[in-house]
Design a protein that fits this description.
The chain has 226 residues and is mainly α. Helix content is 64%, strand content 0%. Homodimer.
Amino acid sequence: MSCYDDDNLDFSKIGKELNSAVEADEKYNRENDAKFRAVHQKVASYDEFRDIVLASHIKPLEKGDRISECKMNQPWNSVALNTDKRETSTTTNSTIEEGKRLPKSGLEFAQQWRRFYKTEDEQYPYLMDIGSEHLAKIFHTEISFGLLGEILKALCLFKKEDATKVIGILETLSKVNRFSLSMQFLSSVERDTCVKLFKNLQSCVSEDSDQLTVLVHLQILYGVQN
């Protein structure tokens, strides 16, 4: 006899969560393939690289496709629509809890980052909560496209008492796979942000401390000139 009561299982919710996970995996793999194609094509600029990745979901029209056959879906069941809205509101609390959970992988980090933490003011405390040690675990393979620049921008909001944590995060990121590639495709604004971040960190570190030695080494890795 099964130990689960099928009557108590929300198969609709389970199905939606499964579909979301599958779509997220497909998006990650699709964009990752696009990154390799862009590097292989030796694109001329960061913007061109970014456009290739962002357009990776677009499929070319097949020979037999007809644009005129595309139809708009007209909602006909207002009761069903209202029910969907109520279901959405009831899942808000669970969504918030999901955003507070520590990510178990780089993919999950990217999902939470894009979905729940859309501004630097939201992203900075999120990074502080995760910490450098956990970031090292989830980014041991690689860091997702575009995240490095966004993380650098968020870290620029650091407080003096967080300087040690920020240096630890920068050191962790410098050791992830394809770090050099991520640095290569930083935009000019993101590079300026990186310079500003290191300059502010230097003002918080004592000249005779071990942290200064680490910071100087990191400046070399991040391409920041004294």
